[in-house]
UniProtKB/TrEMBL annotation:
It catalyses: 2-oxo-3-sulfanylpropanoate + [thioredoxin]-dithiol = [thioredoxin]-disulfide + hydrogen sulfide + pyruvate + H(+). This is Sulfurtransferase. InterPro entries: Rhodanese-like_dom (IPR001763), Rhodanese-like_dom_sf (IPR036873), Thiosulphate_STrfase_CS (IPR001307), TST/MPST-like (IPR045078). The gene is sseA. It comes from Enterobacter cloacae subsp. cloacae. The keyword Translocase does not apply.
């Protein structure tokens, strides 16, 4: 299997030595697991030749918000240092839960990479098939990467506030239902419970099965069940801009491309005392 969005392990085994293919490990600890040494886990075992795409490090550290998109110039430098070239076919994977690979896919795509795929099943599937792993860091020659970026793919708080008031687009929140419905605390301290007024909830985990997206028929049914109109503009949100990219990826596989990301997400909205929240207290 090789699609524009996913490649299978057998495809990667066949093409892993192709100089036009580069493998990227984008595993990431979910909220509440910050104690993990994810770079150390990468060094303990990763796909042969894979460099570590550290989403935490590849963020805008001038912002107080987590995982904000870096400036194109900073991203270009980081990719060149990793040895990643923009004109290659980049294959991204995560632990196998499809939690963070879509964020790396989205970042690379929107910084100008044309060929980005996700390894179906991720690291867990690779291990399940007893395929070889490599230990230690991977050092590559400097890559060729000059990022381009369309700022329109990202929405800011003021944009989302207007949409929430005027219903000019749909806000789709990828957080688990309990957090969306204010039935559970946020894993990040200092954030209110609830959601942006008018937002629809499509929990990212509902879209995933064994490290892959569900079938297109299943995805359509899920979006329909949650009231999402695939013919209207969509702004994806979540806790910090990571799992919203699972929603964006799922929509892309359905041919829905009028989709943007609220990168500040609930980490920004839920920290403010001057913004409306549902359910209202």
């Amino acid at each position: 299997m090789s699609t524009s969005y996913f490649v299978a392990a057998d495809w990667l085994i066949e093409h892993g030595d192709d100089p036009e293919v580069q493998i990227i490990d984008a595993r990431m600890a979910p909220p509440g697991q910050e104690h993990r040494d994810v770079p150390g886990e990468y060094r303990a075992g990763h796909l042969p030749g894979a460099v570590f795409f550290d989403i935490e490090a590849l963020s805008d550290h001038t912002s107080s918000l987590p995982h904000m998109l870096p400036r194109p110039e900073a991203f270009s430098v980081a990719m060149r240092e990793l040895g990643i070239s923009k004109d290659k076919h980049l294959v991204v994977y995560d632990e196998g839960n499809l939690f963070s690979a879509p964020r790396a896919w989205w970042m690379l795509k929107n910084f100008g990479v044309e060929k980005v795929s996700i390894l179906a099943g991720g690291l867990a599937g690779w291990k399940r098939d007893e395929l070889p792993l490599q230990q230690g860091d991977v050092t590559l020659p400097e890559g060729d990467f000059d990022a381009t970026f369309d700022a329109n793919v990202v929405k800011r708080l003021t944009d989302v506030l207007v949409v929430s008031h005027e219903n000019t687009a749909q806000i789709v929140d990828a957080r688990p239902a309990a957090r969306f419905n204010a039935e559970a605390d946020e894993p990040r301290p200092g954030l209110k419970r609830g959601h942006i007024p008018g937002a629809l909830n499509v929990p990212w985990g509902d879209l995933v099965f064994e490290g892959e997206l569900k079938t297109t028929d299943e995805l359509r049914a899920i979006f329909d069940r949650h009231g999402v109109d695939l013919h209207r503009p969509i702004i994806a949100s979540c806790g910090s801009g990571v799992t919203a990219c699972v929603v964006i990826l799922a929509l892309a596989t359905l041919g829905v491309n009028d989709v943007t990301l609220y990168d500040g997400a609930w980490s920004e909205w839920g920290a403010r005392d001057d913004l409306p929240v549902e359910p209202a207290k």
